[in-house]
Amino acid sequence: MNPIEKLQVIIKEMEGNKAKYVANPQKDFSRNRKVSFYDMMWFMLFIGANSMNEEIRRAFNDKAFSYISEVAISKSRSKIKASAFEQLLRKFNDTLENPKEYRGYRVLAVDGSDFSSLYNANSEYATISNQYGGANRMHVNFAYDLLNKNFLDCVIEAKNKADERKGAIKMLSSLAESEKILAIMDRGYDGLKVFEHCNRIENLSYLIRIRSGMTKEIKALPDKELDLDLKFEIREQSKRLTYKIKIQAWDMELPCCVSFRLVKVKLKDKWLVLATNLPRQEFSARTLKSLYEKRWKIELAFRDIKHAIGTLHFHSKKDLFNVQEFFAHLIRYNLTGRIICQIHLAKPKNLKYRYEVNFKNATQIIQDYCRHALDYEEILEQIIHYVHPLRANRLFQRNCRYIYPVGFNYRVA
Fold this sequence. Notes:
The chain has helices spanning about 5-15, 35-45, 50-60, 70-80, 80-95, 165-175, 190-200, 215-220, 285-295, 295-310, 320-340, 360-370, 375-385, and strands at about 105-120, 125-130, 135-145, 150-160, 180-185, 205-210, 225-235, 255-265, 270-275, 355, 385-390. It is α+β, with helices and mostly antiparallel strands.
């Protein structure tokens, strides 16, 4: 059974038990209508960045339906809980057979990113209001499987109320219940509180880049390669807790002894400082450096989910609809990633670079397949034609800027 068929089976099972996933079990989707629960879920999974009317036309134009209006779709959407798509994400992730691992660990990157929609003063995520119209901003903390190209879990918060550290601990505590996890994080997650929480979670190992001046002891370390064990004692009057982790936020007993392994290695013209609880005998400093560099794949995943899948373009101002779309896009990303992992490209002879599948083209081909029921082997043949070279060690300056959402009247179509 291919990944698309697995996804279809899960949605059909949910339709058979739809009382758990609709707002009003006695009424919603109880009568035969043009758009069933299954049709609505399937439509949402492959919604693009065009206007809603154009998306409806593309999804239903080959059906034996008469005209379906945007209002009808909106009413159908309002009947489905946002948790239905969250459950669909988890159920689909559970169908992955023999996931790739590294030395027995499921390797995850934990990081956050912002997603914007048009301003709604009544929204839980209302953040910005200015002369340009403002925006709602969701800050989403992700757990991303680096080896299997899957988003495993996420925590959604309002941008101005987000707590990345707390969200990371929540996700990792849940994921580590069933398998061994190696979580890789950047400097937004450093801190003695995070280290101690991770130390106490069974089956969890971590690799976190920390600031060179996180504590005065770490700041005083010489600029040379180091691999040593550190131990800090936290007391009620301790000055080791920064303004971000005051005594009121410390949720463990006091006094508390926090220990971790610190590794300092050269990274081009900078020093990379890492905190971990991985054993020194199995993971050398050079291995840890190589592992941390793999974290960059989550940044590429953010690019793909925003620009290839279309998560920059929500189709509503309602929180319910936007959360539905967000989880639907995560499922579509995971589906695309799982199909791409089935395609193995050999390095062509007499060519300089190795090649990989172009994610954007792949997700568009899969969208066409799911809307028009193309043969699965046919989409694999189409996807393999769209590849691009992997050019290692290329450096570009990151131009981080805030992107305002595009108004409904200014979409592609």
